[in-house]
């Protein structure tokens, strides 16, 4: 069985080797490529199918934020997980807005890193504790922009979208609305598709910017 295909992008060769060792120890993961900058990462993505790109932010030739935006554009099915020593507020938000599905700092534990890769590959999100709050603290400064896309949601989808934005898991939504897991998964998938959102992190941001939830409702 083929594992989750992962590329490592970092300008430090020793770190790439260490990450390869850590991730390859997990039978769910297959590290297929590693490169030293964002420009090379884009070329690999153009030629190969990848599930997850583990991306540093500050690198020569092209930084991780710019590379993420291009990778998301040319390979929408490929997920980008930022892994960096920087937890600067502006960098966090820039990475998420560029299309990253997660943001971890390099002090993350090996087992947690491997699980984050798997989570991102499955379509969920991964954030270092505290990063979610950072994102939301900055997102709240953005003027609310109501979009016509919200009008395209059914009442049930609006309800589920609101629960997503409050950080509820699928199982919690099932319990709260007394729905089957398959029904909830179907609704979540429909919401993300209708609003052109990549994952739950972007659903939180979109919900806040469009006034569906208030600051006190948000997770983190």
UniProtKB/TrEMBL annotation:
Entry GO MF terms: DNA binding
Keyword DNA-binding: yes
InterPro entries according to UniProt: CheY-like_superfamily, NreC/VraR/RcsB-like_REC, Sig_transdc_resp-reg_C-effctor, Sig_transdc_resp-reg_receiver, Tscrpt_reg_LuxR_C, WalR-like
SMART domains: HTH_LUXR, REC
Sequence ranges assigned to domain Response regulatory in this UniProt record: 5-121
UniProt domain HTH luxR-type: residue ranges: 146-211
Top-level taxon of origin: Bacteria
PTM sites of type 4-aspartylphosphate: 56
GO biological process terms on file: phosphorelay signal transduction system; regulation of DNA-templated transcription
Pfam families: GerE, Response_reg
CDD domains: LuxR_C_like (cd06170), REC_NarL-like (cd17535)
PROSITE patterns from the UniProt entry: HTH_LUXR_2, RESPONSE_REGULATORY
Protein name per Swiss-Prot or TrEMBL: Response regulator receiver protein
């Amino acid at each position: 069985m083929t594992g989750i295909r992962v590329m490592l992008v970092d300008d430090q060769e020793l770190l790439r080797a260490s990450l390869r060792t850590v991730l390859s120890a997990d039978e769910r993961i297959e590290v297929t490529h590693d490169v030293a900058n964002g420009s090379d990462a884009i070329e690999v993505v153009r030629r190969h199918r990848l599930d997850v790109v583990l991306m540093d932010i500050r690198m020569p030739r092209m930084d991780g934020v710019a590379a993420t935006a291009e990778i998301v554009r040319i390979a929408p099915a490929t997920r980008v997980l930022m892994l960096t020593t920087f937890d600067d507020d502006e960098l966090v938000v820039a990475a998420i807005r560029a299309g990253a599905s997660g943001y971890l700092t390099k002090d993350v534990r090996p087992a947690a890193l491997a699980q984050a890769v798997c989570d991102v590959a499955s379509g969920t999100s991964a954030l270092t504790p505290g990063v979610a709050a950072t994102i939301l603290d900055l997102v709240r400064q953005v003027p609310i922009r109501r979009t016509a896309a919200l009008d395209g949601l059914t009442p049930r989808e609006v309800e589920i979208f609101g629960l997503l934005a409050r950080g509820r898991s699928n199982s919690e939504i099932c319990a709260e609305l007394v729905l089957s897991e398959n029904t909830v998964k179907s609704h979540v998938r429909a919401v993300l598709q209708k609003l052109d959102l990549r994952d739950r992190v972007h659903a939180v941001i979109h919900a806040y910017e469009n006034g569906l939830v208030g600051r006190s409702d948000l997770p983190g």
